[in-house]
Amino acid sequence: MTSDRCICLGDDCLAAREAIRKAEHIVGLVDESHFIVSILRCVGCGQHFLSLFCERVDWADGDDPQTRVVVPVSADEVQRLKTANVAADENAILEIVANERRFLYHDMPKGAAETLAWKTRTLFIPGHD
Ligand SMILES: [Zn+2]
Question: Ligand 1 mean position to 112 CA, how many Å?
Answer without folding.
Answer: 30
